[in-house]
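Whiteboard transcription, Tuesday session. T.W. wrote the C-alpha coordinates on the left side:
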Protein backbone atom coordinates (compact mmCIF):
# COMPACT_ATOMS: atom_id res chain seq x y z
CA UNK A 1 0.00 0.00 0.00
CA UNK A 2 1.34 3.43 -0.96
CA UNK A 3 0.34 6.94 0.10
CA UNK A 4 0.73 10.26 -1.67
CA UNK A 5 2.21 13.43 -0.23
CA UNK A 6 0.08 15.46 2.18
CA UNK A 7 -1.55 18.55 0.67
CA UNK A 8 -3.16 21.52 2.41
CA UNK A 9 -6.92 21.05 2.65
CA UNK A 10 -10.01 22.76 4.07
CA UNK A 11 -13.52 21.84 5.15
CA UNK A 12 -14.48 21.85 1.44
CA UNK A 13 -12.26 19.44 -0.52
CA UNK A 14 -13.55 17.02 -3.17
CA UNK A 15 -12.18 14.74 -5.90
CA UNK A 16 -13.80 15.07 -9.32
CA UNK A 17 -16.26 12.33 -10.39
CA UNK A 18 -13.76 11.02 -12.96
CA UNK A 19 -10.99 10.95 -10.32
CA UNK A 20 -8.58 13.09 -12.33
CA UNK A 21 -8.67 16.26 -10.23
CA UNK A 22 -9.00 17.39 -6.63
CA UNK A 23 -10.51 20.79 -5.84
CA UNK A 24 -10.08 22.61 -2.52
CA UNK A 25 -12.08 25.69 -1.54
CA UNK A 26 -10.27 28.30 0.54
CA UNK A 27 -11.70 31.64 1.74
CA UNK A 28 -10.37 33.54 -1.30
CA UNK A 29 -9.60 30.94 -3.95
CA UNK A 30 -10.17 27.45 -5.32
CA UNK A 31 -7.15 25.26 -5.94
CA UNK A 32 -7.46 22.51 -8.58
CA UNK A 33 -4.81 19.81 -8.53
CA UNK A 34 -4.11 17.08 -11.07
CA UNK A 35 -4.02 13.62 -9.55
CA UNK A 36 -1.64 12.35 -12.22
CA UNK A 37 1.05 15.02 -11.79
CA UNK A 38 0.13 15.84 -8.18
CA UNK A 39 0.67 19.51 -9.00
CA UNK A 40 -1.72 22.51 -9.00
CA UNK A 41 -2.97 23.10 -12.54
CA UNK A 42 -5.48 25.91 -12.02
CA UNK A 43 -6.32 28.52 -9.41
CA UNK A 44 -9.68 30.32 -9.31
CA UNK A 45 -9.65 33.54 -7.34
CA UNK A 46 -13.05 34.29 -5.82
CA UNK A 47 -14.62 37.74 -6.38
CA UNK A 48 -14.14 40.15 -3.49
CA UNK A 49 -17.89 40.41 -2.86
CA UNK A 50 -18.23 36.63 -2.64
CA UNK A 51 -17.47 35.68 0.93
CA UNK A 52 -18.40 32.81 3.22
CA UNK A 53 -19.67 30.99 5.02
CA UNK A 54 -20.07 28.65 2.06
CA UNK A 55 -23.04 26.29 2.06
CA UNK A 56 -22.17 24.03 -0.85
CA UNK A 57 -19.11 23.08 -2.92
CA UNK A 58 -19.72 20.60 -5.74
CA UNK A 59 -18.25 19.19 -8.96
CA UNK A 60 -20.41 19.01 -12.07
CA UNK A 61 -21.29 15.54 -13.43
CA UNK A 62 -18.71 15.87 -16.24
CA UNK A 63 -15.89 17.00 -13.91
CA UNK A 64 -15.69 20.25 -15.90
CA UNK A 65 -17.26 22.85 -13.60
CA UNK A 66 -17.23 23.76 -9.91
CA UNK A 67 -20.14 25.19 -7.92
CA UNK A 68 -19.72 27.35 -4.82
CA UNK A 69 -22.77 28.61 -2.91
CA UNK A 70 -23.15 31.10 -0.07
CA UNK A 71 -26.35 32.36 1.55
CA UNK A 72 -27.12 34.92 -1.17
CA UNK A 73 -24.96 33.92 -4.15
CA UNK A 74 -24.14 30.91 -6.28
CA UNK A 75 -21.00 30.95 -8.41
CA UNK A 76 -19.99 28.45 -11.08
CA UNK A 77 -16.38 28.30 -12.29
CA UNK A 78 -14.55 26.15 -14.80
CA UNK A 79 -12.05 23.77 -13.28
CA UNK A 80 -9.58 24.44 -16.10
CA UNK A 81 -10.74 27.50 -18.08
CA UNK A 82 -10.23 30.89 -16.43
CA UNK A 83 -12.64 32.61 -18.84
CA UNK A 84 -15.78 30.78 -17.66
CA UNK A 85 -17.77 32.24 -14.79
CA UNK A 86 -21.48 32.34 -13.96
CA UNK A 87 -23.25 33.96 -11.02
CA UNK A 88 -26.74 33.62 -9.55
CA UNK A 89 -27.66 36.32 -7.06
CA UNK A 90 -30.40 36.00 -4.45
CA UNK A 91 -31.53 32.49 -5.49
CA UNK A 92 -34.06 32.41 -2.63
CA UNK A 93 -36.16 35.05 -0.89
CA UNK A 94 -34.44 37.55 1.46
CA UNK A 95 -33.79 36.39 5.03
CA UNK A 96 -33.88 32.76 3.88
CA UNK A 97 -31.05 30.45 2.93
CA UNK A 98 -30.93 27.44 0.61
CA UNK A 99 -31.03 24.02 2.20
CA UNK A 100 -29.78 22.34 -0.97
CA UNK A 101 -27.66 23.62 -3.89
CA UNK A 102 -26.17 21.31 -6.52
CA UNK A 103 -25.89 20.65 -10.23
CA UNK A 104 -28.98 19.19 -11.87
CA UNK A 105 -29.17 16.78 -14.77
CA UNK A 106 -26.37 18.56 -16.67
CA UNK A 107 -23.45 20.92 -16.13
CA UNK A 108 -25.56 23.92 -17.10
CA UNK A 109 -28.37 23.29 -14.64
CA UNK A 110 -28.41 24.32 -10.97
CA UNK A 111 -31.03 23.09 -8.49
CA UNK A 112 -31.82 25.11 -5.36
CA UNK A 113 -34.18 24.25 -2.52
CA UNK A 114 -35.39 27.11 -0.33
CA UNK A 115 -35.81 26.63 3.39
CA UNK A 116 -39.27 25.89 4.81
CA UNK A 117 -40.21 24.27 1.48
CA UNK A 118 -41.22 27.55 -0.15
CA UNK A 119 -39.93 26.67 -3.61
CA UNK A 120 -37.71 24.43 -5.69
CA UNK A 121 -35.82 26.42 -8.33
CA UNK A 122 -33.97 25.19 -11.43
CA UNK A 123 -31.54 27.67 -13.04
CA UNK A 124 -30.41 27.20 -16.64
CA UNK A 125 -26.97 28.73 -17.16
CA UNK A 126 -27.29 28.53 -20.95
CA UNK A 127 -30.49 30.57 -21.28
CA UNK A 128 -30.09 32.59 -18.05
CA UNK A 129 -33.60 31.65 -16.97
CA UNK A 130 -35.08 30.07 -13.87
CA UNK A 131 -38.06 27.81 -13.25
CA UNK A 132 -39.61 27.93 -9.81
CA UNK A 133 -41.92 25.24 -8.46
CA UNK A 134 -43.84 25.90 -5.27
CA UNK A 135 -44.55 23.65 -2.29
CA UNK A 136 -41.91 20.91 -2.65
CA UNK A 137 -42.69 18.22 -0.11
CA UNK A 138 -39.19 17.69 1.26
CA UNK A 139 -36.95 20.68 1.93
CA UNK A 140 -34.64 19.65 4.77
CA UNK A 141 -31.03 18.90 3.86
CA UNK A 142 -31.38 15.27 4.97
CA UNK A 143 -34.59 14.50 3.04
CA UNK A 144 -34.52 16.78 -0.01
CA UNK A 145 -33.05 14.16 -2.38
CA UNK A 146 -36.05 11.90 -1.80
CA UNK A 147 -38.35 14.55 -3.25
CA UNK A 148 -37.04 14.74 -6.83
CA UNK A 149 -35.35 12.53 -9.37
CA UNK A 150 -33.90 12.93 -12.87
CA UNK A 151 -34.79 10.37 -15.51
CA UNK A 152 -31.70 8.81 -17.14
CA UNK A 153 -31.09 9.60 -20.82
CA UNK A 154 -33.97 12.07 -21.26
CA UNK A 155 -33.21 14.08 -18.06
CA UNK A 156 -36.90 14.64 -17.26
CA UNK A 157 -37.43 15.96 -13.74
CA UNK A 158 -39.95 14.23 -11.47
CA UNK A 159 -40.83 16.30 -8.41
CA UNK A 160 -42.98 15.45 -5.40
CA UNK A 161 -45.00 18.38 -4.01
CA UNK A 162 -47.73 18.70 -1.39
CA UNK A 163 -50.50 21.29 -1.17
CA UNK A 164 -53.56 21.32 1.06
CA UNK A 165 -52.65 17.93 2.47
CA UNK A 166 -52.46 16.24 -0.94
CA UNK A 167 -49.43 14.73 -2.71
CA UNK A 168 -48.73 15.64 -6.35
CA UNK A 169 -46.12 14.46 -8.84
CA UNK A 170 -45.08 16.70 -11.72
CA UNK A 171 -42.92 15.85 -14.76
CA UNK A 172 -40.83 18.64 -16.29
CA UNK A 173 -39.08 18.53 -19.67
CA UNK A 174 -35.37 19.14 -20.20
CA UNK A 175 -33.91 21.73 -20.58
CA UNK A 176 -36.86 24.15 -20.46
CA UNK A 177 -38.38 22.47 -17.36
CA UNK A 178 -41.84 23.17 -18.71
CA UNK A 179 -44.60 21.18 -17.05
CA UNK A 180 -45.58 18.15 -19.15
CA UNK A 181 -47.84 16.31 -16.76
CA UNK A 182 -48.92 16.21 -13.13
CA UNK A 183 -51.07 13.78 -11.16
CA UNK A 184 -51.98 12.77 -7.64
CA UNK A 185 -50.19 9.50 -6.77
CA UNK A 186 -52.00 6.60 -5.16
CA UNK A 187 -50.56 7.49 -1.74
CA UNK A 188 -51.65 9.35 1.35
CA UNK A 189 -48.22 10.47 2.54
CA UNK A 190 -45.55 9.56 -0.04
CA UNK A 191 -42.01 9.44 1.33
CA UNK A 192 -40.06 9.60 -1.91
CA UNK A 193 -39.84 8.89 -5.62
CA UNK A 194 -37.11 7.42 -7.82
CA UNK A 195 -36.55 6.78 -11.54
CA UNK A 196 -35.15 3.38 -12.50
CA UNK A 197 -31.64 3.47 -14.07
CA UNK A 198 -33.10 2.57 -17.49
CA UNK A 199 -35.82 5.24 -17.21
CA UNK A 200 -38.68 2.75 -17.69
CA UNK A 201 -40.21 3.09 -14.23
CA UNK A 202 -40.97 5.77 -11.68
CA UNK A 203 -41.50 4.30 -8.20
CA UNK A 204 -43.16 6.06 -5.26
CA UNK A 205 -43.29 4.65 -1.73
CA UNK A 206 -45.77 5.28 1.04
CA UNK A 207 -45.08 6.38 4.61
CA UNK A 208 -44.10 3.41 6.84
CA UNK A 209 -46.90 4.42 9.23
CA UNK A 210 -49.42 3.52 6.52
CA UNK A 211 -48.19 0.02 5.78
CA UNK A 212 -46.20 -1.61 2.97
CA UNK A 213 -46.79 0.12 -0.34
CA UNK A 214 -44.61 0.85 -3.38
CA UNK A 215 -46.35 2.17 -6.50
CA UNK A 216 -44.95 1.62 -10.00
CA UNK A 217 -45.69 4.25 -12.68
CA UNK A 218 -44.81 4.32 -16.35
CA UNK A 219 -42.83 7.38 -17.58
CA UNK A 220 -46.05 9.06 -18.77
CA UNK A 221 -47.61 8.77 -15.31
CA UNK A 222 -49.90 5.75 -15.71
CA UNK A 223 -50.27 3.47 -12.70
CA UNK A 224 -48.92 0.03 -13.58
CA UNK A 225 -48.75 -1.95 -10.34
CA UNK A 226 -48.63 -1.70 -6.55
CA UNK A 227 -46.43 -3.77 -4.23
CA UNK A 228 -48.18 -4.29 -0.89
CA UNK A 229 -45.70 -6.30 1.14
CA UNK A 230 -44.11 -9.77 1.14
CA UNK A 231 -45.84 -12.25 -1.14
CA UNK A 232 -45.04 -15.35 0.94
CA UNK A 233 -44.23 -14.14 4.46
CA UNK A 234 -42.53 -16.55 6.84
CA UNK A 235 -44.05 -17.60 10.14
CA UNK A 236 -42.11 -14.84 11.90
CA UNK A 237 -43.51 -12.30 9.43
CA UNK A 238 -47.13 -13.43 9.41
CA UNK A 239 -48.21 -10.19 11.09
CA UNK A 240 -46.13 -7.92 8.86
CA UNK A 241 -49.21 -5.86 7.97
CA UNK A 242 -49.36 -4.67 11.58
CA UNK A 243 -45.79 -3.37 11.50
CA UNK A 244 -44.18 -0.33 9.94
CA UNK A 245 -43.81 -0.30 6.17
CA UNK A 246 -41.19 0.72 3.62
CA UNK A 247 -37.99 2.35 4.89
CA UNK A 248 -35.46 2.09 2.03
CA UNK A 249 -35.74 1.59 -1.74
CA UNK A 250 -32.81 0.98 -4.10
CA UNK A 251 -32.50 -0.08 -7.77
CA UNK A 252 -29.68 -2.25 -9.05
CA UNK A 253 -27.33 -0.51 -11.55
CA UNK A 254 -28.64 -2.65 -14.43
CA UNK A 255 -32.26 -1.77 -13.47
CA UNK A 256 -33.27 -5.45 -13.35
CA UNK A 257 -33.86 -5.55 -9.59
CA UNK A 258 -35.44 -3.35 -6.94
CA UNK A 259 -34.56 -3.88 -3.27
CA UNK A 260 -37.15 -2.81 -0.70
CA UNK A 261 -36.26 -2.62 2.97
CA UNK A 262 -38.87 -2.22 5.69
CA UNK A 263 -38.66 -1.94 9.49
CA UNK A 264 -38.21 -5.69 9.95
CA UNK A 265 -35.03 -7.72 9.52
CA UNK A 266 -35.95 -8.74 5.98
CA UNK A 267 -35.32 -7.39 2.51
CA UNK A 268 -37.58 -7.90 -0.52
CA UNK A 269 -36.16 -8.21 -4.04
CA UNK A 270 -38.47 -7.34 -6.95
CA UNK A 271 -37.72 -8.46 -10.51
CA UNK A 272 -38.41 -5.38 -12.66
CA UNK A 273 -38.99 -7.50 -15.76
CA UNK A 274 -42.24 -8.76 -14.26
CA UNK A 275 -42.45 -6.33 -11.29
CA UNK A 276 -42.94 -9.42 -9.11
CA UNK A 277 -41.25 -10.18 -5.80
CA UNK A 278 -38.81 -13.02 -6.41
CA UNK A 279 -36.73 -13.12 -3.25
CA UNK A 280 -37.02 -12.36 0.47
CA UNK A 281 -33.71 -12.06 2.37
CA UNK A 282 -33.82 -12.28 6.17
CA UNK A 283 -30.93 -11.17 8.39
CA UNK A 284 -30.43 -13.96 10.96
CA UNK A 285 -29.54 -13.32 14.59
CA UNK A 286 -27.42 -16.48 14.73
CA UNK A 287 -24.65 -17.00 12.18
CA UNK A 288 -23.43 -20.51 11.47
CA UNK A 289 -20.44 -20.87 9.10
CA UNK A 290 -21.24 -23.20 6.23
CA UNK A 291 -19.97 -23.79 2.72
CA UNK A 292 -18.32 -20.76 1.16
CA UNK A 293 -20.00 -18.28 3.49
CA UNK A 294 -17.50 -15.89 5.08
CA UNK A 295 -17.94 -14.59 8.63
CA UNK A 296 -15.19 -12.19 9.67
CA UNK A 297 -14.79 -10.88 13.22
CA UNK A 298 -12.73 -7.78 13.94
CA UNK A 299 -9.94 -7.77 16.52
CA UNK A 300 -8.51 -4.48 17.74
CA UNK A 301 -4.97 -4.42 19.10
CA UNK A 302 -4.10 -1.42 21.26
CA UNK A 303 -0.45 -0.79 22.13
CA UNK A 304 1.95 2.15 22.30
CA UNK A 305 1.92 2.36 18.51
CA UNK A 306 -0.98 2.69 16.08
CA UNK A 307 -4.19 0.76 16.69
CA UNK A 308 -4.18 -2.48 14.70
CA UNK A 309 -7.34 -3.83 13.07
CA UNK A 310 -7.25 -7.50 12.09
CA UNK A 311 -9.96 -10.00 11.20
CA UNK A 312 -10.34 -13.67 11.97
CA UNK A 313 -12.71 -16.04 10.20
CA UNK A 314 -15.32 -17.53 12.49
CA UNK A 315 -15.26 -21.32 12.72
CA UNK A 316 -18.29 -21.70 14.98
CA UNK A 317 -21.67 -20.06 15.44
CA UNK A 318 -21.65 -16.40 16.45
CA UNK A 319 -24.29 -13.73 16.98
CA UNK A 320 -23.97 -10.18 15.66
CA UNK A 321 -23.78 -7.60 18.46
CA UNK A 322 -27.19 -5.90 18.92
CA UNK A 323 -27.87 -2.21 19.36
CA UNK A 324 -26.99 -1.12 22.92
CA UNK A 325 -30.00 -0.92 25.21
CA UNK A 326 -28.82 2.45 26.51
CA UNK A 327 -29.00 3.96 23.01
CA UNK A 328 -30.93 7.23 22.89
CA UNK A 329 -33.34 5.84 20.29
CA UNK A 330 -34.20 2.23 19.59
CA UNK A 331 -34.30 1.85 15.80
CA UNK A 332 -35.10 -1.12 13.60
CA UNK A 333 -35.17 -2.11 9.97
CA UNK A 334 -32.89 -1.87 6.97
CA UNK A 335 -30.96 1.42 7.09
CA UNK A 336 -28.62 0.94 4.10
CA UNK A 337 -28.94 -0.96 0.81
CA UNK A 338 -26.13 -0.82 -1.76
CA UNK A 339 -25.80 -2.80 -5.00
CA UNK A 340 -22.36 -3.37 -6.44
CA UNK A 341 -21.48 -2.54 -10.06
CA UNK A 342 -22.33 -6.05 -11.30
CA UNK A 343 -25.78 -5.94 -9.62
CA UNK A 344 -24.99 -9.41 -8.20
CA UNK A 345 -24.05 -8.36 -4.66
CA UNK A 346 -25.99 -6.30 -2.13
CA UNK A 347 -24.43 -4.82 1.02
CA UNK A 348 -26.89 -4.03 3.80
CA UNK A 349 -26.86 -2.63 7.31
CA UNK A 350 -29.84 -2.98 9.64
CA UNK A 351 -30.53 -0.90 12.72
CA UNK A 352 -30.92 -3.98 14.91
CA UNK A 353 -27.21 -4.84 14.39
CA UNK A 354 -25.53 -1.51 13.58
CA UNK A 355 -21.94 -2.81 13.65
CA UNK A 356 -22.54 -5.62 11.14
CA UNK A 357 -22.28 -5.57 7.34
CA UNK A 358 -24.25 -8.20 5.43
CA UNK A 359 -23.29 -9.08 1.85
CA UNK A 360 -25.80 -11.05 -0.21
CA UNK A 361 -25.47 -12.86 -3.54
CA UNK A 362 -28.84 -12.21 -5.16
CA UNK A 363 -28.21 -14.54 -8.09
CA UNK A 364 -27.59 -17.51 -5.80
CA UNK A 365 -30.00 -16.18 -3.14
CA UNK A 366 -27.45 -16.76 -0.36
CA UNK A 367 -25.66 -14.77 2.30
CA UNK A 368 -22.14 -14.47 0.88
CA UNK A 369 -20.33 -12.76 3.78
CA UNK A 370 -20.88 -11.14 7.17
CA UNK A 371 -18.43 -8.57 8.56
CA UNK A 372 -18.58 -8.00 12.33
CA UNK A 373 -17.04 -4.75 13.59
CA UNK A 374 -16.72 -3.29 17.09
CA UNK A 375 -18.00 0.15 16.07
CA UNK A 376 -21.20 1.17 14.31
CA UNK A 377 -20.93 1.15 10.51
CA UNK A 378 -21.60 4.63 9.12
CA UNK A 379 -21.11 4.28 5.35
CA UNK A 380 -20.95 1.55 2.70
CA UNK A 381 -19.68 2.38 -0.78
CA UNK A 382 -19.02 0.02 -3.68
CA UNK A 383 -16.33 1.03 -6.14
CA UNK A 384 -17.92 2.87 -9.11
CA UNK A 385 -15.88 1.01 -11.77
CA UNK A 386 -14.63 -2.23 -10.18
CA UNK A 387 -16.97 -5.10 -9.39
CA UNK A 388 -17.44 -6.53 -5.89
CA UNK A 389 -15.14 -4.11 -4.04
CA UNK A 390 -16.58 -2.43 -0.94
CA UNK A 391 -15.38 0.55 1.12
CA UNK A 392 -16.55 0.63 4.76
CA UNK A 393 -16.30 3.32 7.42
CA UNK A 394 -17.10 2.88 11.12
CA UNK A 395 -17.70 5.29 13.98
CA UNK A 396 -15.82 5.39 17.27
CA UNK A 397 -12.54 6.44 18.84
CA UNK A 398 -10.74 3.38 17.49
CA UNK A 399 -11.66 4.29 13.89
CA UNK A 400 -10.12 7.76 13.62
CA UNK A 401 -9.07 8.09 9.93
CA UNK A 402 -9.44 4.34 9.34
CA UNK A 403 -11.48 2.74 6.55
CA UNK A 404 -11.81 -0.86 5.38
CA UNK A 405 -11.82 -2.49 1.94
CA UNK A 406 -13.45 -5.87 1.29
CA UNK A 407 -13.73 -8.10 -1.75
CA UNK A 408 -14.77 -11.78 -2.01
CA UNK A 409 -11.21 -13.00 -2.58
CA UNK A 410 -9.61 -11.16 0.33
CA UNK A 411 -8.78 -12.66 3.70
CA UNK A 412 -11.23 -10.42 5.49
CA UNK A 413 -11.53 -6.63 5.28
CA UNK A 414 -8.26 -4.77 4.78
CA UNK A 415 -7.75 -1.72 6.99
CA UNK A 416 -6.40 1.53 5.53
CA UNK A 417 -5.10 3.81 8.30
CA UNK A 418 -4.61 7.41 7.15
CA UNK A 419 -3.74 8.70 10.64
CA UNK A 420 -0.11 7.63 10.21
CA UNK A 421 0.17 9.95 7.22
CA UNK A 422 -1.02 13.04 9.12
CA UNK A 423 1.25 15.45 10.96
CA UNK A 424 -0.54 15.01 14.28
CA UNK A 425 -1.34 11.32 13.71
CA UNK A 426 -5.07 12.08 13.94
CA UNK A 427 -7.78 13.83 11.97
CA UNK A 428 -8.46 17.52 12.55
CA UNK A 429 -12.19 18.27 12.50
CA UNK A 430 -14.52 16.20 10.36
CA UNK A 431 -12.96 13.77 7.91
CA UNK A 432 -14.28 11.75 5.01
CA UNK A 433 -12.99 9.08 2.66
CA UNK A 434 -14.23 7.94 -0.74
CA UNK A 435 -13.17 5.99 -3.78
CA UNK A 436 -11.15 7.84 -6.37
CA UNK A 437 -13.22 7.22 -9.50
CA UNK A 438 -10.34 6.58 -11.87
CA UNK A 439 -10.22 4.17 -14.79
CA UNK A 440 -10.34 0.55 -13.58
CA UNK A 441 -7.00 -0.14 -15.29
CA UNK A 442 -5.23 1.75 -12.49
CA UNK A 443 -4.83 0.33 -8.97
CA UNK A 444 -7.67 1.00 -6.54
CA UNK A 445 -7.21 4.34 -4.81
CA UNK A 446 -8.93 6.07 -1.88
CA UNK A 447 -9.23 9.80 -1.27
CA UNK A 448 -9.01 11.05 2.34
CA UNK A 449 -9.50 14.57 3.65
CA UNK A 450 -9.95 16.38 6.95
CA UNK A 451 -10.04 20.13 7.54
CA UNK A 452 -6.25 20.51 7.27
CA UNK A 453 -4.84 17.89 4.89
CA UNK A 454 -5.80 15.48 2.17
CA UNK A 455 -3.95 12.43 0.93
CA UNK A 456 -4.43 9.51 -1.46
CA UNK A 457 -3.89 5.83 -0.74
CA UNK A 458 -3.24 3.29 -3.46
CA UNK A 459 -3.96 -0.37 -2.81
CA UNK A 460 -1.21 -1.36 -5.26
CA UNK A 461 0.72 -4.48 -4.36
CA UNK A 462 4.09 -2.84 -4.96
CA UNK A 463 5.66 0.44 -6.05
CA UNK A 464 6.21 -1.08 -9.50
CA UNK A 465 2.49 -1.01 -10.20
CA UNK A 466 1.13 1.89 -12.20
CA UNK A 467 0.04 4.51 -9.66
CA UNK A 468 -2.48 7.30 -10.26
CA UNK A 469 0.09 9.92 -9.27
CA UNK A 470 3.75 10.45 -10.14
CA UNK A 471 6.54 9.78 -7.63
CA UNK A 472 4.58 8.38 -4.69
CA UNK A 473 5.78 9.51 -1.29
CA UNK A 474 5.98 7.63 1.99
CA UNK A 475 5.11 3.97 1.36
CA UNK A 476 3.47 2.18 4.24
CA UNK A 477 5.98 1.30 6.92
CA UNK A 478 8.20 4.29 6.06
CA UNK A 479 9.67 6.89 8.35
CA UNK A 480 6.39 8.51 9.36
CA UNK A 481 4.11 11.09 7.85
CA UNK A 482 5.27 13.12 4.88
CA UNK A 483 5.74 16.86 5.17
CA UNK A 484 2.47 18.75 4.77
CA UNK A 485 2.47 21.14 1.86
CA UNK A 486 2.64 24.81 2.74
CA UNK A 487 -0.26 27.04 1.63
CA UNK A 488 2.35 29.01 -0.34
CA UNK A 489 2.87 25.97 -2.55
CA UNK A 490 -0.79 25.81 -3.54
CA UNK A 491 -0.36 28.51 -6.21
CA UNK A 492 2.36 28.03 -8.83
CA UNK A 493 4.68 31.05 -8.80
CA UNK A 494 4.70 31.30 -12.59
CA UNK A 495 0.93 31.65 -12.65
CA UNK A 496 0.61 34.67 -10.35
CA UNK A 497 0.18 37.26 -13.09
CA UNK A 498 -2.14 35.12 -15.14
CA UNK A 499 -4.26 34.34 -12.10
CA UNK A 500 -4.38 38.02 -11.20
CA UNK A 501 -5.62 38.85 -14.68
CA UNK A 502 -8.15 36.04 -14.48
CA UNK A 503 -9.43 37.39 -11.18
CA UNK A 504 -10.01 40.76 -12.80
CA UNK A 505 -11.97 39.14 -15.60
CA UNK A 506 -14.36 37.41 -13.18
CA UNK A 507 -15.84 40.60 -11.79
CA UNK A 508 -19.34 41.95 -12.31
CA UNK A 509 -18.85 42.19 -16.07
CA UNK A 510 -18.49 38.46 -16.28
CA UNK A 511 -21.53 37.59 -14.18
CA UNK A 512 -24.56 35.82 -15.61
CA UNK A 513 -27.64 37.39 -14.03
CA UNK A 514 -30.43 34.85 -13.93
CA UNK A 515 -33.87 35.98 -14.99
CA UNK A 516 -36.65 34.95 -12.61
CA UNK A 517 -39.55 33.33 -14.45
CA UNK A 518 -42.37 31.50 -12.73
CA UNK A 519 -42.68 28.17 -14.50
CA UNK A 520 -45.15 25.97 -12.66
CA UNK A 521 -47.97 26.52 -10.24
CA UNK A 522 -51.05 24.52 -9.39
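and on the right, the sequence the group agreed on:
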Amino acid sequence: MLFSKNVKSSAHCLPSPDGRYIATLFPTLINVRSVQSWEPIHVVRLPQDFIGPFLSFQWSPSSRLLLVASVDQIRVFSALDANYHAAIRNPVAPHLKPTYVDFGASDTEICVMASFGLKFAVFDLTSSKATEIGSPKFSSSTAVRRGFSFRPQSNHLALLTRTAGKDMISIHAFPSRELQRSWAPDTIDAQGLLWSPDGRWLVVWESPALGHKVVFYTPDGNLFKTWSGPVNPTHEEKDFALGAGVKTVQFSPDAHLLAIGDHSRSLSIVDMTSTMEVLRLRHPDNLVPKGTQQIWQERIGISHGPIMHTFIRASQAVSPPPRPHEAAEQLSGCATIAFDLSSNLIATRIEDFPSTVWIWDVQAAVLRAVLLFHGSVSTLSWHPHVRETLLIRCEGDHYNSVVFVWDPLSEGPQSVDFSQQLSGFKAVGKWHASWLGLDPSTPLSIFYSDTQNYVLASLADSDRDSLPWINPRNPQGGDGPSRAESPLELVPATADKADEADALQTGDDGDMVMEDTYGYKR
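Someone added at the bottom: Residues 472-484, 492-522 have pLDDT under 50 and may be disordered.
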